[in-house]
């Protein structure tokens, strides 16, 4: 679910909502905070997998020519 902040700058890039949630999920996960691992190592272990797949689908929909009619996936 997207996080909305009143005093936050708006990011105009594609898939900005999913990107922010994915980054927050990784940086606040126990794998990074308590164990002190790099976020890339935690991704390989399978943490935040749902957001990773959603971010990939959003980025892939930017290249899909059918998305001109359907719109980009994500929020």
UniProtKB/TrEMBL annotation:
Pfam families: Pet191_N
Keyword Disulfide bond: yes
Keywords, sorted A to Z: Disulfide bond
Protein's GO biological process: mitochondrial respiratory chain complex IV assembly
InterPro entries the UniProt entry points to: Cyt_c_oxidase_assmbl_Pet191
GO CC aspect terms: mitochondrion
Top-rank lineage group of the source organism: Eukaryota
Family note: Belongs to the PET191 family.
Described purpose of this protein according to its UniProt entry: Involved in an early step of the mitochondrial complex IV assembly process.
UniProt name for this protein: Cytochrome c oxidase assembly factor 5
């Amino acid at each position: 679910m997207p996080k909305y902040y009143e005093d936050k700058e708006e990011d105009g890039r594609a898939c900005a909502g999913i990107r922010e949630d994915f980054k927050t999920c990784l940086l606040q996960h126990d794998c990074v905070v308590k164990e002190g691992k790099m976020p890339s190592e935690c991704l390989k272990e399978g943490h935040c997998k749902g957001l990773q797949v959603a971010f990939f689908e959003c980025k892939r929909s930017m290249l899909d020519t059918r998305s001109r009619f359907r719109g980009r996936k994500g929020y």
